[in-house]
Amino acid sequence: MVHPVAPGFAVKGTSTAYRDDGTVALQWVKTTADQLAQQEAIEAALVAMAADLPRVAPRAAKGVWSTDLLTAYPIGDPHIGMYSWAAETGEDWDLELARKVHCNAMDALVQAAPATEQAIIVNLGDALHYDSMEAKTPRSGHMLDADGRYAKVIDVAVMTIRQCIESALAKHKFVHVVNVRGNHDETGAMWLARLLAIAYEREPRVTVDITPSVFNYYRWGKVLIGMHHGHSCKPDKLPGVMAADRASDWGECSWRYWWQGHIHHESKKEYPGVSVESFNTLAAKDAYANDGGWRSGRTMQAIVLHREHGEVARSRVNSAMFEEAA
C-alpha cells in the first residue's frame, strides 16, 4: 500500500492482482471505521459541546450525618426513550413516565434513607434505550420501540439523572455518580457521565466517575463495589476481574460486591470472596420482551453499607407506587 486511508478509517484488508512480471496491476483496499479514533473523536466533541453548559453553583451543606455509613442507590436499566403500549404489553411506558417514575422513586428512597454523609448513585446501564438517531441497539442492530426524537431522549435522560442527584443532595453531604455503559447506550453513557461531570465541576459535594471502561469500582472503608452492566462479561468471571483489576483493594477489603443490570430481574449468587447481584428495572417491558415471555418485578432499592461491616440495611419501592401519580 502506498496511499493512506481516509481519516477515521483503518485498513480491513487488501486484494491485489499481479501481472506475469510480478508488478501490481490492480489493488482493492477494504477499510472499516477506526473504532478507537471514533471514540476519541466522540469524547473530544462531547467536551467541546459541554464547554458552555451551565454549571451548578456550590451550596452549603447543612445537617448532621453518619460518617460510618454509605447509602447506595443502584438504578437498574432505566430505558429512557423506550415505548410500550399497555394494550399490547400490559404496561405503558414513554418519556414522561420514565422521568416521573424514576424521579419519584428516587425521592421516596432518599426520604426513607438514613442521613449518611456519603451516597452513591449508580446507573447500572441502559439509561438510554437507544444510542443514535436510529432506534436500534448499537451492536446487533436490533430494532427498538422508541418514544420521541433522540434529542428529546437526551433531554429527559439528563433531567432525570440531574433530579436524582438533587434529591440525594437534599439528604447527603456528598454524592458520587456512576454511569455504567450498557449494550443499549455504549456511547450515551460516556457523554452522560462527562456532561454531568462538567455541570457539577463547581459543586464539590458531587463527584462523577468518567471512566470509559465497562467495569467501574468504588471503595468505602473495607467495602469494595464493582459495577458492570452484565452484557459483555458473565457473572462467574466477575470475581476474577475484580481480583485482577483491584488487587490491593481486594486484599484490604472484607466485603466485596458486584452490582449489575441487563437481565432486568433480581438474582444474587455468592462466590468465594464476593457476591454478584443483578437488579430489577422500573421500566415496563417492551413488545420484544413481552413476546419473548420475559417477566420480572419493577423495583428500585437503596442499600446502606457500613464501612467496617458491609451491607446493614435495604429499602425498596416499586413502580406501581408512582404510576398513578405520574
Residue windows where pLDDT falls under 50 for at least 5 positions:
none
Number of helices: 9
Biggest beta sheet summary: 6 strands, mixed
Which radius of gyration do the C-alpha atoms yield?
A: 22 Å
Task: List the main descriptive attributes of the protein structure presented here.
326 residues, alpha/beta, 6-stranded mixed β-sheet, 5-stranded mixed β-sheet
Describe the structure in your own words.
The radius of gyration is 22 Å and the shape is globular. It is 28% helix and 28% strand. The mean pLDDT is 91. It has helices spanning 35-49, 86-89, 95-112, 150-169, 188-199, 238-245, 247-252, 287-291, 320-323; strands at 9-18, 24-33, 66-75, 116-123, 174-179, 206-209, 216-220, 223-227, 255-260, 267-271, 274-278, 299-306, 310-318.
Give a brief rundown of this model:
By secondary structure, this protein is α/β, with parallel strands linked by helices. It contains nine helices and 13 strands.
